[in-house]
Amino acid sequence: MGLPRYAPRRLAATFAVLASSSILALLVACAHEPWSDGALHKAGRTVRLGPIPPAWQRIDVGGADLAFRDTGREGSALFDVGCDRHDDDAPLSVLTEHLIMGTTERRFDAQDVVPLDGREAMHSLLSAKLDGVPMQYDIYVMKKDGCVYDLVYVAPPDRFAGGSPEFERFAGGLHASSSP
């Protein structure tokens, strides 16, 4: 039996990196080959996202196609697309749970199915602790054409409200299509 789409230790490590500003300052990355002209090119698909806020700095985080640090708000945004994985047929709620494995004291403030790029997406707003540190999360999970799209924004509770609207515009602009 294989591990879920995101092994709990891997995701917890990814979010630990995202939540740690001292480590993130060292991870400012160069542009990756799949990201060009404002789009991600992966698995025969082109994925466009909403506007990237000027304050977001691109960083390199394992397990994510794109990651950004919102230094002023001590927040981070993550985007990943995975295609043709063994658990792609799992419900959106289960795929969302995969993203938050490793967190404790979870409290969902809202969880709804919303339209995103012409499909249903699970949108979750929650508070949880990561390594004992309180954080707030804004998460979208969508399935389309054999791929799962994950978008996550995480920030400390006292800074979350300032960055969440920018993340909503970023996530809301998602449009995936087959590459020519």
General description of the model:
By secondary structure, this protein is of the alpha+beta class. It contains four helices and eleven strands. It is globular. It has helices at 8-19, 21-24, 92-99, 157-172; strands at residues 35-36, 39-42, 45-48, 56-59, 66-70, 75-83, 103-116, 119-130, 133-144, 147-155, 175-178. It has a seven-stranded antiparallel β-sheet. A four-stranded antiparallel β-sheet has the order 1-2-3-11, with no helix packed on it. The longest helix has 16 residues, at 157-172. Strand 8 (119-130) and strand 9 (133-144) form a beta hairpin. It has a single domain (8-29, 40-178), classed as 3-Layer(aba) Sandwich (Protein Transport Mog1p, Chain A), CATH 3.40.1000.
Give the SSE layout:
Blueprint: H1 8-19, H2 21-24, E1 35-36, E2 39-42, E3 45-48, E4 56-59, E5 66-70, E6 75-83, H3 92-99, E7 103-116, E8 119-130, E9 133-144, E10 147-155, H4 157-172, E11 175-178
Antiparallel strand pairs: 1-2, 2-3, 3-11, 4-5, 5-6, 6-10, 7-8, 8-9, 9-10
